[in-house]
Amino acid sequence: MSSGVVIYRKLPGRPYLLAGADDPTAVTHSLGRLLRTLHGLSGDVDLPRDHQRIEEWLADATATAARIDPPLPADRRTVIRQFLAAPPPADAAHNTLCHNDLGAEHLLIDERSGVLSGVIDWTDAAFTDPARDIALICRDLGPDAAAAVAGIAGIAEPELLGRATFLARASGSKTSPTPSRTHRPGSRTCTTRIEPSGTRSSSEQVS
After folding, report:
1. Total structural domains within the chain
2. How far apart are CA 143 and CA 191, in angstroms?
3. Pair 109, 29: CB distance under 8 Å
4. Residue 17 gets which letter from DSSP?
5. Are 160 and 41 in contact (CB under 8 A)?
6. Structural domain range at position 123
7. Quick one: which of 2, 58, 79, 109 has the fewest CB in 10 Å?
8. pLDDT of 10-34, one tens digit each?
9. How far apart, in Å, are the Cα atoms of 40 and each of 35, 59, 97?
10. For 176-200, what is each residue's pLDDT tens digit?
11. CB within 8 Å of 13: residues ≥ 6 apart
């Protein structure tokens, strides 16, 4: 097998978590337009179909909660147990093309203007529930930003927003799901603290 290299054009901007951005509204419009375009692309694209059901997410969250439960304060354990005991939302009726890992660590922003300059790490892109893209925006930028992005993307149905909130909480594996409407980079927003991660290759720029 021959060897070679893949060269990517470096996108401008700095990862959202490292840029000291205080106001997520600066990126919501570009994110909404990006998702409106992405979710409308043809199903002929050769990408995986990710059909993980809500009950599987709940099972994963339950297993994670069992691992982190003992060292948590009592009030945190109560919040987690209430979330796990609540009836989960229904599965999505249809799938669309999604980035599928749209966390803040994959958003690049212009440090002067605060606007979105690029989105990186498309290796998990798949046809899946469009709520998956909104979920990580909810987790990292907060529920208000998530609702704004969903509105611009044209997917702000109550059922989808409900699934996004559930998935945001279920994906919180580093700390307990503690809602908050105040965003600070690296702080708890919709569900959990997220840790800054290194940027990798890039393949999409937002104008």
Report:
1. 1
2. 10
3. no
4. G
5. no
6. 14-41+49-205
7. 2
8. 888 888 988 877 778 889 999 999 9
9. 8, 30, 7
10. 333 333 333 333 344 433 223 333 2
11. 19, 108, 109, 110, 111, 116, 117, 118
